[in-house]
């Protein structure tokens, strides 16, 4: 039976509960977008109205030479304004990034039953989860995305429990990215006059998770979203996108040469680059100096797209609050102290809705 002829509940069961995902639905043949995936007009992405982020990527290798201070400033400025920037010469081999994209296509190209073994309630490992959309049970319209999520605890557990189709290359990606992540944190925290030792770095990025996202071709991208408006909950996100594009970031406050407040800017794919974005935890720690970027993903009708983010975040047991030295300068704290596990529970308990997740931590000024 063609998926477009399913009613809402049978389609939901097929895609979500049975683990066929959006890809399983698309593979059956689709001439139009099924009703549960049609977004309300205000959530749709108008490609014509968005501008392209034309700023050159930051060459991370310049950090080790005479241009160190300039690179430092470029990174801090990006974190304080758009909350997104691209890095080249970041230390992660480009051929590894290509292998990673191939591994994502290989994993999602498997029959549904091979992927469905990792569904939330049946996965053989608490570290691995296969799913679709974000919180499908709570969403008014579903997102056009399937994903596999892999939590890192140790090399041994990753190699034992992550899916065999991708575990080695994903682990290599995670491990080779960490030097870059630590350098970025040293810059961003150093700018706030916070000293970092290994234990403090571990407190900020003690939780690490790699996702592989798959956005199948869509008959009408104008009606759907691959991912709805949201900011990431953690510290820093490192994203590998393929050459297809579709990532959009909202301009929080007017930025020269980038866009006006409220505009959406497309982050174009750059060969060999990694996209870095600030998460909510870093916005809170900086008392709002750094901006967690609200972003979303458009679907495509021409070719299936993959992206592979590394999410770094504080350990669930960590207490998070604005840094005392920043509060002292600002004269007040804009966010309360909380245990990060509580923030996670709130974040994963609701559908994507812009930066609303930050309300959990906000101190009401009224």
TrEMBL record:
GO terms (BP aspect): coumarin biosynthetic process
Annotated signal sequence range: none
Cofactors (names): L-ascorbate
An MF annotation (GO) of this entry: metal ion binding
Keywords assigned: Dioxygenase, Iron, Metal-binding, Oxidoreductase
Top-level taxon in the UniProt lineage: Eukaryota
Domain Fe2OG dioxygenase stretches: 200-314
Family: Belongs to the iron/ascorbate-dependent oxidoreductase family.
UniProt-recorded name of the protein: Feruloyl CoA ortho-hydroxylase 2-like
Organism: Durio zibethinus (Durian)
Gene it is expressed from: LOC111276015
